[in-house]
């Protein structure tokens, strides 16, 4: 193959160019910045947070104080879990549900921004935390422990 054929094959080829662990790490970091910053802002002024949940967000079925606690709690815990790569699929799914609620019930016109949040979350739900995560470390550790056990 000529050099140009190799370049064209590489550009249009279907093999990953970057390691998926790097891709998932970047996706996790991007989402952590969004939700950790939101949780931090909500926690910095809880009275304003309660006001927003009462007067602007209008979530059905939940009292505003409960909705605020759940929303900020998921943002805080979910972003922390994604940052360290622990239970990444569960954390990403929980944050994806927050994005879905925001999209459907709070700011439906902001779908372009919500799509930018949802895309890396779907990637992490699909691929997991990657090799650079506590999930991968635990998986390797458990595989070692389980392989050492005798079969009954």
Q: What report would you give on this structure?
A:
This protein is mostly helical and 152 residues long. It has one domain (21-148). Helix content is 78%, strand content 0%. It is built from seven helices and no strands. Helix 2 (20-44) packs antiparallel against helix 4 (64-84). The radius of gyration is 20 Å and the shape is flat. It starts with a helix and ends with a helix. This is Oxidoreductase. It holds the Pfam family DoxX. The chain crosses the membrane at residues 20-41, 61-83, 90-111, 117-138.
How are the elements arranged and paired?
Layout: H1 3-12, H2 20-44, H3 46-57, H4 64-84, H5 88-106, H6 111-127, H7 134-148
InterPro entries: DoxX, DoxX-like_oxidoreductase
Organism: Roseateles saccharophilus (Pseudomonas saccharophila)
Pfam families: DoxX
Properties at a glance:
7 helices, about 80% helix, about 150 residues, mainly alpha, about 0% strand
H-E string: HHHHHHH
- Largest β-sheet summary: none
Number of domains: 1
Task: Work out the helix count.
Answer: 7
Question: How does the overall form come out from the CA principal axes?
Answer: flat
Mean pLDDT: 93
- Please report which band the strand proportion falls in: under 5%, 5-15%, 15-25%, 25-35%, 35-45% or over 45%: under 5%
Protein name: Oxidoreductase
Membrane topology: Multi-pass membrane protein
Family: Belongs to the DoxX family.
Pfam family, one: DoxX
């Amino acid at each position: 193959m000529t050099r140009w054929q190799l370049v064209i094959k590489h550009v249009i080829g279907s093999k990953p160019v970057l390691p998926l662990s790097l891709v998932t790490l970047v996706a996790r970091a991007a989402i952590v910045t969004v939700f950790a910053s939101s949780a931090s802002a909500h926690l910095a002024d809880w009275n304003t947070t309660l006001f927003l949940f009462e007067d602007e967000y209008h979530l059905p079925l939940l009292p505003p104080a409960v909705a605020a606690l759940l929303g900020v709690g998921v943002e805080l815990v979910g972003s922390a879990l994604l940052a360290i790569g622990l239970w990444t699929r569960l954390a990403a799914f929980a944050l994806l549900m927050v994005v879905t609620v925001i999209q459907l019930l709070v700011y439906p016109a902001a779908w372009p921004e919500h799509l930018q949040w949802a895309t890396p979350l779907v990637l992490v739900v699909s691929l997991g935390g990657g090799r650079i995560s506590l999930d991968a470390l635990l998986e390797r550790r458990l595989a070692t422990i389980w392989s050492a056990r005798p079969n009954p």
